[in-house]
Amino acid sequence: MVLLLLLPVFGTIHATLIMTNNDLMAADQRHLVTCVKTVLQRHIPPERPLMICLPGSLGNTKDAPSGSIHTQTYDIMLQAINEESKWLLHTTKPEVDTLKTSMEAEVSSVVYTVLSSEHGARNTANKLAYQVGDLRRKKSLNNRGTFFVVVTHSFESPKQLAEKIFETLWREFNILDVLVLTPVTSNTLFETGNRINDGTRVFRFYTRFPFHSSGDEIMLIDEYFVDTKVKSVHNSNLFPNKVPIKFQNHNILSVLTAELLPVTMSVNKSADENNTQIEYKGAEIDLFKLSLENLNLSYVYKPHDKDVPPSYALLANLITGDFDMMFASTPLHEKILQYGEPSTTNYETGYKWYVPCPAPIPRLEKISGIFSPSVWVSLIISFGAVTTVMWLLAKRSSKTENKDYRTVSNCIYNAWATALGVSAFQPSTTAMRTIFFLWICYCYSISTLFQTFFTSFLVNPGFGKQIENFKELLSSGLEYGYDQQLYGQFFDNSTQDVELDRLFKPTDCADRELCLLRVVNDNDFATLQVEFMTMYFVTIYLQKQSLLCYLKDNFRVIDIVFYFPQGSHFRFPINRVVRRIIEAGLMKKFENNMKELWKIQKQSLAVRYFAVKDNSVEDFFVFSTSHLQIAFWSLALGVGLSSVCLLFEILCYRLGVVQ
Questions:
Q1: Domain carrying residue 338
Q2: 259 and which of 214, 266, 565, 646 could share a cystine (Cβ 3.0–4.6 Å)?
Q3: Residues 353, 555: contact at Cβ < 8 Å?
Q4: What is the DSSP string of 560-604?
Q5: What is the CATH number of the domain that holds 379?
Q6: Helix 67-83 vs helix 22-43: angle between axes, to the nearest 10 degrees?
Q7: Which of 401, 424, 459 marks a domain boundary?
Q8: Where is the Ionotropic glutamate receptor C-terminal domain (predicted)?
Q9: How many CB atoms lie within 10 A of CB 313?
Q10: Per the domain annotation, does 291 fall within a domain?
Q11: For 253-274, what is the HEC assignment?
């Protein structure tokens, strides 16, 4: 059924059953059914469901034939189609409500049988309009489908009848692809130069090409001769594509857009002194112009009421449908889809949480935390163990070992000297030398690690912990805010919204720039903003991107699209071109061009002045004595401890001398 949704085809059979001779009715019925069945077999694939729409009363039916005659005709037609066993059939009728089924939503071919009037083409077209209008009221009409209208009553001017049908279906239902079959009287000389027998029935097929290179054209596409067999004069495709790859005639699209800074900016372009034309700049504008240029289409901007906010003015025009295309950074949303049809996604943006950037960590604090407490404990234990082992080995080998290792104080001195990387006394025995060598290797490793981290942290001590997800934002206790009016128009409260509003009362951020500035300067506020709009704020008001931080995932994803009226025939060709442009990466180029335009017009766009506090850390800085504070503090501490030890030894010495 996926193929059916992608390739919708509607078949419409308009049966005019005006008979003057009941003896000829059976033959005409047989020829009509044979011709219709042949067209369906050749042009409607069997995997597509088929809908048969029977006619209604339309009030006064004095000009309609008797019920038994046209009912018999419908029965014969349904029987002939059903005998093929190729299509899944579904029937409907005006003024009768039918049950909605899943099959009805997937129908791709619809056959209409409509009573016509012998009072002229206008009455016949009106009855057909009533039939199609009922399908629209039931919300089952696809005006992009192919309508096959079969007329059984011979008119003096079949082309005039076809023109009236084309005009009615186009004006009232915006139906483009229509095929009209009309019977032709016998003993008529055709373009082929052949005459037909009295028992042969001839049908002409008319179709309309509104986008033909020479303009709106109604053409005779083929003729069928029907007696015992069906013979085609031209063997033409009765349902050719009516929407060209490139439009050849002069087609002007009425386009709705508005200035929406910073996405779309208006530029006054004067054609003469008395007339001023408005042009627009922006990524969407570039995409729109390139798409229409590729399709050979031109456009004209439709004015809107400037006293009404742009979003409301565009939505009001979308409801009336009095345009060909609309865009102004408009999101894909189910409420808007009730009134228009979207294009493929032009670009993707979304709501992001913007949070304070982590503050730089002080260098002294970072350096003091190079080694964790457990590492310091292991160092002290290792130092004590080595000192004890060396003293025990020296005591055991007192005769051969160096005298500088025979006391505990000397062992502590030598172990400490090795740890600091200064000279120490050389041991004599093999066991002592082994322990001494292992202690040198251990101290060298610890010293190398310490110096590496020490140098790195002097250059850049790093930052505090960044808020990375929504749970951390909740637990941080930050005040937050967003544009409640704009957000509420497009999103319903989700679980995250309810949880957030329960914990904290949000601040209304109708002024987007002030809220973002508060995030940068105060570091106690978070805001929910559209990513694309925030890029504009960063470009215009901030010197560095690093001043504003955000959560990685979008809180809400927004697809920006073009909108077309319901049933627009320009939607699919424009979609095809837009997809190719996006796949080629040109949309990214348009976005970069727009950012460059922001920078160029920065002075004129930045209508407000903000004092921005720079909390970032420079990549390079001048190394000064202040960066060595930890070393000087360590030296002062060492000198102080040494002085205390010296005074204590002097005091002990004096006391010993007195005794």
A1: 246-352+561-597
A2: 266
A3: yes
A4: EEEEEETT-SSHHHHHHHHHHHHHTTHHHHHHHHHHHHHHHTHHH
A5: 1.10.287
A6: 30
A7: 459
A8: 373-538
A9: 18
A10: yes
A11: EEEECCCECCCEEEEEEECCCC
| Residue 381 contacts residue 481 (beta carbons within 8 Å) | no
Domain for residue 654, yes or no? no
d(CA 146, CA 457): 73
Closest CA to 140 of 90, 78, 71, 179: 90
Cβ-based burial of 327 (10 A; exposed 0-12, middle 13-18, buried ≥19): buried
Region 535-554 average pLDDT: 79
Residues 92, 47 within the same domain: yes
3-class DSSP assignment, residue 84: coil
pLDDT, mean of residues 28-56: 77
DSSP H or E run through 189? none
Residue 323 has pLDDT above 80, yes or no: yes
Q: Six-digit token pair at 165?
A: 């049908």
Q: Which residues pair with 217 in a beta bridge?
A: 209
At 337, which helix (H) or strand (E)? Answer: none
pLDDT category of residue 4 using cuts at 50, 70 and 90: very low
Whether residue 467 lies inside any domain: the answer is: no
Distance (Å, whole) CA 547 – CA 497: 26
User: Side chain identity at 174, as an amino acid letter?
Assistant: N
The secondary structure of residue 466, as a DSSP letter, is P
Count the domains in the chain.
Answer: 3
Distant-in-sequence contacts of 158-162, Cβ < 8 A, 24+ apart: 158/182, 158/183, 158/184, 158/204, 158/206, 159/206, 159/218, 159/220, 160/121, 161/121, 161/124, 161/125, 162/206, 162/208, 162/218
Higher pLDDT, 75 or 641: 641
Of 89, 76, 97, 59, the residue nearest 15 (C-alpha): 76
Look up tokens 């215009």; give the residue. 540
Residue type present at position 228: T
Q: Are 539 and 594 in contact (CB under 8 A)?
A: no
Compute φ and ψ for 408, nearest 5 degrees. -65, -40
Alpha-carbon gap, residue 395 to 136, rounded angstroms: 109
Q: What's the alpha-carbon Rg for the chain, to the nearest Å?
A: 43
